[in-house]
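Shipment paperwork, digital attachment
Item: protein structure file
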Amino acid sequence: MTAGLGVTAPKPMKRIGTIDRPRTHDPRNQAPMSVPTHEPIGSATPNATTIGANDSRQNRTREMQLIPEALARAHMHDRLREADVERRAVRLVSARRMQRRAERASMRARRALAMAVML
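Attachment content:
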């Protein structure tokens, strides 16, 4: 298309986003993640696919949001285990105390019987 003076009209430029100001925040419209070329052959990082890129981004954010919940769950699990160990220790101490008391009562009864037989 030419203007009246024989000069072509400027074409609209394709807007490119930057890291600080991405073109869009919608993960469905973002460019897929690319595989770095400096990775060694057979490295542990899997090849990125464009099919599941959106799902992986959304799952990552969901996992990030669930991290405090998982941390609290693990903390509560540890606290319950510590309480259970403490309960067992208290039960063992009281069982040993009752066993010593029973042994002393048994010895008293044995002495009393021996004294009764000797008379």
